[in-house]
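Trying the structure run again after the queue cleared.
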Amino acid sequence: MRQPAPWMVPLDERILEYLDEHDLATAATITREVELFASYNRVRERCYALADAELVDTVTTDRAHWELTKRGKMFLEGNLDARNQPTPRVRRFLRG
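Done. Tokens:
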């Protein structure tokens, strides 16, 4: 059973699941494919939050492409309690 952190929202798990299925994706691609009617900015914000929590990582210097980390995979498998991961820093989302 998955153990999400208090700061996590349903979109976070969908992003993680999408990256698990597709290995690599941009926030724009995730926005089109994930069926929770989230805006591009919201998906991008959540990717930054998940990166702060070490559940996803960016693979390009422009932070446009995201991938699932080993910890993200462990979370999806129910083998990692996200409450023990670093808490995202809100200010980070406000930087471009």
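The first helix runs from residue 10 to 22. Worth checking whether this holds up in the mutant runs.
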